[in-house]
Amino acid sequence: MFMEPEVQLVHKWITEVVVGLNFCPFAARPLKTGKIHFTLNKEATLKSALETFAKVCSMLDDDDEMETAIVVLPEGFASFQEYLYLVDCCEQLIVKEGYEGVYQVASFHPEYVFHGSDENDPANFTNRSPFPLIHLLREEMLENALEKYPHPEKIPENNIEMTRKLGLEHMKSLFLACLKG
What we know:
Mean pLDDT: 92
Shape: globular
Radius of gyration: 16 Å
């Protein structure tokens, strides 16, 4: 299966960082079974990104087998604040289009910084990705996975603890390694 270079980098990052460090204990299965739909949008506009996002929602409506979808945005949205505005617009679109309770947005960006966090906190690497990404999750599948997972509320805590234990330099080098095709 052909993947654009940008999608290959994101796939590598998911494999080596998200699954490799178990940031998301639910990511390995859909990755292995090919149930993550990747959409590449190289246009650098808010309008284009939102149109792509809406199309991906519609695609998920039509394909019950696809568990999750990721919109890869290698152009534009380099500013984390501009990206957060896009995420907010996507969340508003979910409400406007009647997808509340159906789909949920998860956000990943190369310069991700959690609110109230220092930009050099290794924990930010749990949400740092090779490119700005909009991850669309099916809420029903997420809820089912969370029900079967012991203490899902501890996932973020465990990720923060692990990244801080590994340290900033290790997280940076792991992240940079994923940027090499």
